[in-house]
Structures are given as C-alpha cells and as structure tokens.
Amino acid sequence: MDLSNIVRGAFQSAMVGYWLDRGHTGRGLASVALSALLDAARDDYALHRVQAATLLANHASQSVLTRAGFERIGVAPNYLKIAGRWQDHVLFQRILHD
After folding, report:
1. 10: helix, coil or strand?
2. N or C: which end of the chain has fewer CB within 10 A?
3. Residue 7: helix, strand or coil by DSSP?
4. Nearest CA to 24 among 56, 1, 53?
5. Is the pLDDT of residue 29 over 80?
C-alpha cells in the first residue's frame, strides 16, 4: 500500500494505491491496511482528502474502498496505461476532516 502524490497548500490531498497477491485476497488484509493508512494520512500527515482509482471491473477493490468510507466521484477515461493500453478507471475519494 502506498500514499503518493501528496499535495500541500490549499489541497492537502494524496493518492492511495494498493495491491495483493491473489493468494491473499478475501481475508480483509487490504481493509486493515487501508484503515491504518487513512489514520496516518489524517493524524500524521494532516491530509484533508485521499483519492483512489480502480479499473472499471475491479469490484473487489471498489468494495474495499466503499467499506473504508470512500465515495465514488466519477469515471476517468484513459486514466492509466495498464497492460499496454490506456484504461478507464473509477475515481473515489475520502474526506478525512469535516
């Protein structure tokens, strides 16, 4: 799991990325790690917002994000080049401070 593209100033935002080997999915590991990362993003890094993106068909990852309090904010066409081609992604955000 990583926290990247941290932007300070008025934005106070970052991107989160994560992946698991297929043999370790379905155990809640991503959910536990994401919860710890969000706590650190809020408490240690004083971030306001964390964003994530998933491939359109990655429903398992979308479920992890939704359970962690992320909300879907849209679809980004041709967002990342994966497996040699530009692919659309669903974008999510989580606001860490009210």
Report:
1. coil
2. C
3. strand
4. 1
5. yes
